[in-house]
Amino acid sequence: MIEIKDLHKSYKMGSNSLHVLKGINFSCEAGELVAIMGSSGSGKSTLLNILGMLDEADSGEYTLDGVPIKDLSETKAANYRNKFLGFVFQSFNLINYKSAMENVALPLYYQRVPRKERQEKSLKYLERVGLREWATHLPSELSGGQKQRVAIARAMAAEPKVLLADEPTGALDSTTSYEVMDLIQKINDEGNTILVVTHEPDIAEMCKRVIHLKDGVIVEDKKVEQVRASQYVK
Amino acid sequence: MFNKDRWREIIEVLSSNVGRTLLTAFGVCWGIFILITLLAAGKGFENGIRKDFGDIATNTMFMWTRSTTKPFEGLPKGRSFEFKTNDVQAIWDNVPNLKYISPRNQIGGFRGGGNVVRGIRIGAYDVYGDYPEIIKQDPMTVTSGRFINYNDIEQKRKVAIIGQGVQSELYDKGEEVLGSYIKIRGINFLVIGTYKKNNNDGDGEEAQKQIFVPFTSFSQAFNRGEDVGWMAITAHDGSSISQLKENIIEVMRKRHKVHPEDKRAIGYFDLYEQFNRVESLFFGLKAIAYLVGIMVLLSGIIGVSNIMLIVVKERTKEIGIRRALGEQPISIKKQILMESIFLTIISGMVGIIFGALLIYGINSLLDSVGPVDMFMNPSVSVGVVSGALMILMISGLLAGFIPAQSAIRVRPIEALRTE
Fold first, then answer.
1. What's the ipTM?
2. Nearest to A209 by CA among A82, A41, A85, A34
């Protein structure tokens, strides 16, 4: 599903440049649930941004589902993001003057799905995250966990090939974190490929594979025995 | 363009901060209001002045003789001379593009004594000997009977058309005018018509107190022989009398042995030139109205542009989210531009409506207090209004352009970075 070869990325900070990613090689099959771990500054968010086409690598190859990702114009990148990727952010990033349903429908809108169908689909996905009766509520009327579930519904609504989650539980307490992870695991159970950036070991253990980044290189890449989050959820 | 969701968003964004939107809208509203009001005021002034000109054919000159100021071909200076009736044909033969040439004779006028008598009533009026064409150069409405025709000219009929002012002084109310006789300098003329003139300037009353008789009868009755007092010459619409007048005067100089450089021997009044002077005044007024209006509008537009920039800044993160979800940059740009155009046009229309209300108010005020000198019926045409809307559309586009550009310049990753 994802193929990365010798990925480099550096940021220019005035006169000196900061080499963040120093040759990442990584591949991931469809249906995997991968945790990317590392301390802050290890380059994990940069990696995720490059995977999410929000940022471009300086060198290296990136292939997503057989499509080489390079030399993207903003328009093309927007198209690919819309078709291939779903994003879940630490700070939820819902649009606060739109209802939960409208937030979920947003990526479908960019795919020019007709209005009726958009509504049906977004209700379906809200149902799946257990928030159907909250469909007309604004984000400000939802709790943190609920917001993140809306965000996940939004990421899934466009039926992306890969779901990218950047610290999805970073702003949540442990109970709601487990609820969110339970949801992520269930989505993964349905065969979706998910990449989770986290620095919390217990969250990483709930994935099937853990990658450790340190100073811009992968220092460890192992399969783990998945801990089901459902056991913590009442 | 007619995308329901996009419109909903525009409304949502603009109504999210109503006070700010209204203040911004006010700038544009005010600008267009000033523009419309100024143009209407200019138009009102123009209408007033045009009314003073009446329906007179403006492409016209008047020409008369004075005494020569230079000796020429053995003739002394200070010699007086008269135009003759055959000069008319000479002008026709030598100067193209003329529409009417009316030779005229006149008695009365300035310091004219009591020259017209009817029964026991007496009056002092201008009496003109004219050709039928004069009614096209100095328009009047024949209110009863008829005007002079060529039979009158050929048969030298002693007939007269009198103004309403003459009628009210020489006749009782309700008295039959047509078929009666008036005595002009002791000679009876049959009254065959009455007229009314439409112009409204200082001579308004005087213009109703004239008497027109056939040119030939006039010459015979008052002993003018072949003399022509003055001429009214009108050019065809395509050419201007101001350009033709030199030719005409030159023809006259030759025929009357006037020194070619004797500027003062032949007097003239070029109505077209005067009219053009006023026309350029109107043009200047209009230009000033547009300039001032657009300048005021411009400051309103800069206001819109500023607010749109702030809106974009405020929504940086939202724009980042949208782009992460796959919204195309062009779509974001369109959105910002449409918000800006929408805001500009709506507020501009409000300005136009207020301007129209003001014009309406002034008009009904003018109607109720009666006519005012040099001001009448201020108005703006549909053309001006649609022009104003065009200006608004363009300015909305301009106002939104920089903010829209800055909205898509921010990369999604930067926009998403939590502060």
1. 0.87
2. A34
